[in-house]
Write a sequence for this structure.
């Protein structure tokens, strides 16, 4: 198998042992003689996987009892509309920090009075707004903790006077989180904890049932809580892979150990960006993401961008092209990314500088 350094922003790199265990389950799941994608989701073998996956989420994030953990279809983008349907009675508030935050706000505006309390659009979402005021008359306040396209991240669990809702699609399980500060934490699995096809929702149950509107069954969180995430057939294979990935996170020492690894990996790459005469980071230093490292060519070397892409590709760097809306480069350094791959990219940047600067 060809050895590559996978910096793709999502679907993400996954632990090899999780991939290998999933391959075996495709052949024969839990000794059933059936593939995991053939087995009944009502079988005791599958229910054991659901229970294990839910237990791993609870253990790794220290999720309090008053919360439920849901595994749903539709991606995080579906939740942009589901959240205001379930929570917004009179008003909601949003922190606008990137493309996905804007999309979430748009869906809420289509359902009622949703306001942006602050935005970093004035500087191409290169920083996290500070000093804003969260309206106390809002039903909830929505944040996007990590912005994959622009490489910014909210590094702490903020205090909110109203129910706090967070899209953690791309930094979930990358650091310890105080779940008790949030009403909902949600996201697509494919950025850090599994393949595309399953969405996680961690929800404090007492915030539900407060709106006067009718909520269709499939987008009412209470439906899925009561059904144990099996009101309809769950996305079986993505949940299986996610379970194997979380087992790896636990084996690695849990979120404190993972967080330390992620800090070290990001520092290695950011230090090279800051040192290298050919590259410039695009995010404000205090808001730099540990998951998505975004950078561009120094203006003096702009014409060398395509050359560097080709140079990196020759050295088996995959997925470092920046998002199509912003250009430049983006190296996603999710949990499963080995430090050796970060070092390989750093070496590549240093070699390119020696040949071109």
């Amino acid at each position: 198998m060809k050895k590559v350094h996978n910096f793709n922003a999502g679907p993400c790199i996954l632990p090899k042992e999780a991939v290998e265990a999933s391959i075996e389950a495709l052949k024969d799941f839990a000794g059933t003689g059936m593939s995991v994608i053939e087995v009944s989701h009502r079988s005791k073998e599958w229910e054991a996987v659901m229970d294990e996956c839910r237990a791993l989420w609870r253990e790794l994030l220290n999720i309090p009892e008053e919360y439920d953990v849901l595994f749903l279809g539709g991606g995080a983008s579906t939740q942009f509309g589901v959240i205001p349907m379930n929570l917004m009675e009179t008003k909601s508030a949003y922190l606008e920090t990137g493309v996905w935050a804007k999309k979430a706000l748009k869906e809420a505006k289509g359902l009622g009075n949703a306001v942006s309390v602050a935005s970093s659009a004035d500087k191409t979402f290169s920083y996290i707004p500070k000093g804003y005021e969260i309206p106390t008359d809002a039903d909830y306040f929505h944040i996007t903790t990590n912005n994959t396209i622009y490489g910014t991240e909210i590094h702490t669990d903020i205090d909110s006077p109203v129910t706090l809702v967070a899209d953690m699609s791309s930094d979930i399980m990358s650091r310890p989180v105080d779940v008790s500060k949030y009403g909902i934490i949600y996201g697509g699995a494919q950025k850090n904890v599994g393949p595309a096809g399953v969405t996680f929702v961690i929800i404090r149950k007492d915030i539900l049932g407060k709106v006067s509107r009718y909520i269709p069954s499939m987008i009412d969180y209470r439906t899925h809580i009561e059904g144990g995430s099996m009101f309809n057939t769950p996305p079986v294979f993505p949940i299986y892979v996610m379970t194997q990935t979380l087992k790896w996170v636990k084996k690695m020492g849990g979120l404190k150990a993972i967080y330390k690894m992620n800090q070290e990996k990001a520092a290695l790459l950011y230090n090279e960006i800051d040192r290298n005469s050919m590259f410039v980071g695009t995010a404000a230093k205090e808001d730099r993401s540990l998951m998505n490292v975004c950078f561009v060519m120094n203006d003096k070397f702009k014409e060398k961008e395509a050359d560097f892409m080709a140079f990196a590709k020759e050295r088996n760097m995959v997925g470092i092209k920046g998002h199509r809306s912003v250009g430049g480069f983006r190296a996603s350094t999710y949990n499963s990314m080995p430090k050796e791959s970060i070092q390989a990219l750093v070496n590549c940047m240093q070699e390119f500088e020696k040949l071109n600067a």
Remarks:
- The mean pLDDT is 97.
- The chain has two domains: 16-251, 255-356.
- The domain at 16-251 is CATH 3.40.640.10 (Aspartate Aminotransferase; domain 2).
